[in-house]
Amino acid sequence: MNDSDMDDNTPADDRRTARDFDVEIDDVLDEDGDDEDGLFDDLLRGEPIFENKEVLRPSYTPHELPHRNEQINNMATILVAALRGETPSNILIYGKTGTGKTASAKFVSQELEKTSRKYEVPCEVEYINCEVTDTQYRVLAQLANTFIQQNREFVDDRVDELESLAERARDDPTVLADTEFDSVEAVVERVDSLLDDREEMEDVPMTGWPTDRVYAEFFDAVDYVERVAVIMLDEIDKLVEKSGDDTLYNLSRMNSELDNSRVSIIGISNDLKFTDFLDPRVKSSLGEEEIVFPPYDANQLRDILEHRSETAFKADALSEDVLPLCAAFAAQEHGDARRALDLLRTAGELAERDQADIVTEAHVRRAQDKIELDRVVEVVRTLPTQSKLVLYAILVLEKHGVHNINTGEVYNIYKRLCDEIDADVLTQRRVTDLISELDMLGIVNAVVVSKGRYGRTKEISLSVPVEETEAVLEADSRLGDVENVTPFVQARFDNE
DNA sequence: AACTATCTGCGACATGTAGGCT
DNA sequence: AGCCTACATGTCGCAGATAGTT
Description:
The chain has 20 helices and eight strands. By secondary structure, it is α/β, with parallel strands linked by helices. The strands form two sheets. Strands 2-3-4-1-5 form a five-stranded parallel β-sheet, with helices on both faces. It binds a DNA duplex through residues 135-137, 207-211, 243, 384, 386, 406-408, 426-430, 432-433, 436, 448-458. It holds the Pfam family AAA_16.
């Protein structure tokens, strides 16, 4: 309930404050007859393009997911069991990034919790992102703690309830008739035992306990109250990759030992083949139901964008071809909706910066470039020093008009660069690998070619803009003071 | 805090290889 | 036909870092 309330209110609040702000600005400008333009005046006067940019961000969970009805209904059909107090089948959800897996799952679980509250069926959904919480210990600890927290709240409520009951019973013992208690003393006793339990509910520390104790703690916490617990494990493949399938094995066989409650697992995975590494028993129990999220095609992406842009942008802020173009670009890249939204948002931001009234096709194309450039800058910036040196060597060669650079040349320049800045010199073996890595990152293009009598080498060329890359590399403090590499590149030319 | 397992980056050494040259 | 170049690619074992466990 809280979550959805917040979702409903936050954007509205944003809108209101934004509008108020506009009004104030207008007032100020009106009063000040002499409009000496300050730094921000121009920027503010332009028609804002965005109505609410939040809905374009990846963190936003929409209330409607176009083209995912089938999957959502599927999940709902499986999970209604929880509302009848039965154990829902475990679900495994597959799909690449940006296919709406997480959003759909979260949406369904919100609905589930909402309905469970309406009918007062005890049913909880716990969401865990295994990329963040990536060990068995941490998953268990986190689960244990949330359930312990819930139990505390449950006990507190129950104690309040019973205390007031006891109070009333003292005056008028007949109120006990409809309850499980036959005397005031029994109620008081129950309160005491609850308070004792309350004492024992200790948080699991984030480190320090043996795993089996954490597991036991979690087990007890879940079983303390009658309920159906749905555990959502996002990026479950990461968990399996890093710490094996023990966690899943334990979780999936819990049901047979729980007395009061039932657990059900929803696994969300990017990787279709991750079950290959699982214990067959885990595999069969976890994959009772499988739901696949296929990538969106261009038309579906357009629907999604249309849907979101209604709230995201002011009316008529988009020129006609913007959405189809964004959709087409994103469809080329594996139908990733996140990417499409990112593109649209960036295009809008660019338009805003231009103080344009509408977002045009050109903005989208520029956004595409910008996103790609940002990616490259980020990749290059975070490269280890040795890789940077190798890249710098390639860059230097490229700048001097050498094309089809080969490994030997790169290695020579690289050695000089290392000398210059006093860095360790790696062997050619290693540098070869580093070049391959740069190739895989897409900042360099390397093809192996055979030059017959003159051996076999990689032909390397830069596949990113020279100036920008150079700027990023030179921003590195260790590379900053490399000066004048031209002479020895030149020397190499003369030799040839 | 101490212990252990796993991962990472590296060099040594070995083997593979396309195709122009002789 | 086979040689030979300038590397590519593969495997191993090591040391130090990092993470998980107790």
